[in-house]
Design goal:
five-stranded mixed beta sheet, four-stranded antiparallel beta sheet, 1 helix
Length: 220
């Protein structure tokens, strides 16, 4: 399943304090959903000044940078973030079930300058709406390449009480604060009733022969 993945190289370390310093505070209102699960423990992430040197799959640049000077909106991380996710571009494992979802895009400044070596950290539920809070299933982080590009292979997240389908993501360019946000799918029946949903965070999605191909650019 990983035959199309770009190559990976090693990275140095980033301090957990630096990574988490600018994360938005947890919103108490979020605890109503699926809070019977235990919040995972945290540990340091990896980071580097080295670049990936990879060539993510074909991108169709549709950046919103430069249009308004606006950056990607922040959203709550919710209670299920874990800072010790593995470095990987595919979250799929041998027992991962669900509809395959490829997400690509760039990390850019508001002036459309690509931000290389940006951390992209993703966590989401499985197809049944469950977070893995004891392991790292459907959790992973990677770094953008020299053109600020990322490539993520995962599945369409499931539903859990009170929420529409969503991916959780933290994005941090070198020497910049962390953006914590969530991404949504278009035309989801529960989008309109979801208390966190924002149309600005909808991914552009196309159906493909083996799943869905999504695009989202982060503007910092
Ligand atoms: Fe969530």
């Amino acid at each position: 399943m990983n035959a199309n993945l770009p190559n990976k190289i090693g990275f140095g370390r980033i301090s957990r304090r630096r990574f988490l310093r600018r994360s938005p505070p947890f919103l108490a209102v979020f605890t109503f959903a699926a809070c019977s699960q235990t919040a995972p423990k945290s540990s340091p992430h990896l980071y580097s000044d080295a670049h990936l040197g990879t060539s993510p799959k074909s991108l169709s640049p549709t950046p919103t940078c430069g249009d308004s000077g606006l950056s990607t909106p922040a959203q709550t991380p919710g209670p299920f973030y874990s800072a010790n996710s593995p470095q990987r571009q595919s979250l799929l494992e041998a027992d991962t079930a669900g509809s395959r979802l490829i997400v690509t895009g760039q990390v850019l400044t508001t002036d459309c300058v690509p931000l290389a070596n940006s951390l992209i950290d993703v966590w989401q539920t499985d197809a049944q709406g469950r977070y893995d809070n004891t392991g790292n299933k459907l959790r992973g982080h990677q770094f953008t390449d020299v053109k600020g590009r990322y490539w993520l292979e995962t599945i369409v997240p499931g539903l859990y009480p009170g929420r529409t389908r969503h991916l959780h993501i933290k994005v941090q360019a070198p020497n910049r604060p962390v953006l914590t946000t969530q991404l949504y799918l278009p035309e989801e029946p529960l989008n309109e009733s979801d208390f966190l949903f924002q149309p600005e965070l909808i991914m552009a999605i196309q159906d493909t022969a083996d799943g869905k191909q999504a695009r989202f650019d982060f503007v910092l």
